[in-house]
Amino acid sequence: MSEMTRRAVQAAWEELGRDQGYPNPDALTEAIEVEAERLDGLIGDLTQRLRDQGIAQFQADNQGHHPPFLEAVLIGNRARSQAEELILHQELGEAVELAAMEEDKETFADQSWRTSPDRWRTDTDLMDDPTPEIDAQTEEVWPEKTIGFRVMAAFLMQARYEDSQPIPETPDDPLKAQFTDLVATELDRRASVQSEFRRTSQSS
User: Among 143, 117, 107, which Cα is nearest to 11's?
Assistant: First the structure.
């Protein structure tokens, strides 16, 4: 579930007063997550259709050639952005715009994380999920790694791409070693924190 979609539903429901119709916060949270999952499904379907149209248009303009990787990522990103805007406006209406205005002024005023080069490890809960193209590229570069490693690597790849930084494209890419070390270090750090937390919890 996209954190952005969940926040949009929550903010729109608050604007419309729909959040008052639930007996407790847990029930409200569950309902918001169910609705966000539904909207994410619609966004995903529309994203795929728009992406396919974008790919077809590129091929029509380039003698049938498939777009190169980075161009395909751009097409996918544009499709996702368009799909989110269309579906959220269609399903949540003007409340989305009102909620977005309030969001900018209040709760989500601090957007500094968006430009942080470390957001792939410090703000993954706020980042959008990596694009399908980035996911596919990550699997191609690290086929030997665990799913957990590839998930973290995909966020790193996404952040670097958004920042117009080079990313590894093949298993033999010289950048692979650097990216591997970054992801492995972060995974080790998280494992250490979790281990310390369990140890502290058991002793208290």
Answer: 107
For residue 158, which of 185, 136, 186 has the smallest C-alpha distance? 136
The residue count for the chain = 204
Extract the tokens encoding 12. Answer: 């729109």
Residue 4: both structure tokens together: 């952005």
DSSP secondary structure of 94-145: HHHHHHHHHHHHTTT---GGGG-TTHHHH-TTTSPPPPHHHHHHHHHH-TTS
CB–CB of 51/76 below 8 Å? yes
- Report phi then psi at 156, rounded to 5: -65, -45
| Cα–Cα distance list, 185 to 8, 88, 129, 178, 182 (Å) | 34, 38, 21, 11, 5
pLDDT digits (tens, 9 = 90+) for 9-66: 888 888 778 878 888 888 899 999 999 999 999 999 999 999 999 889 988 988 888 8
pLDDT tens for residues 127-143? 778 888 898 999 999 99
Q: What is the dihedral of CA 106, 112, 113, 114, to 10 degrees?
A: 100
pTM value is 0.53
- 128 Ramachandran zone, left/alpha/beta (phi>0; psi -120 to 50): beta
Please name the residue that has the structure tokens 């010289």. Answer: 174
3: closest CA among 193, 192, 191, 155?
Answer: 155
Measure the CA–CA gap between 65 and 108, rounded to whole angstroms.
42
